[in-house]
Amino acid sequence: MVTTLSDPTADRVVTELERIEVPMLRLDLRDSTHSLRLDAALDRHGCPRGLLDTGAHRVALEEIGAVWWWRTPNPPSFPPVLA
């Protein structure tokens, strides 16, 4: 889940996912306390393979079933080298 850490709507979704025991990762792109690394490639069948590493969590891309990107009125800004 890509959203802010202080989002009441996302909080409710997280609560429900935890209740039904769905593994998930909440990621705030404005949070500078972690580094984010994404190593990704498509295999010969077009399926994503690789790793998302936040510094605190590592997730294999093939384990990701969905991404919920909750857009806020002010999207995060990135350094020019990443924009």
From TrEMBL:
Domain of life: Bacteria
Name of the protein described by the UniProt record: Uncharacterized protein
Source organism of the structure: Streptomyces daliensis
Lineage, broadest ranks: Bacteria, Bacillati, Actinomycetota, Actinomycetes, Kitasatosporales
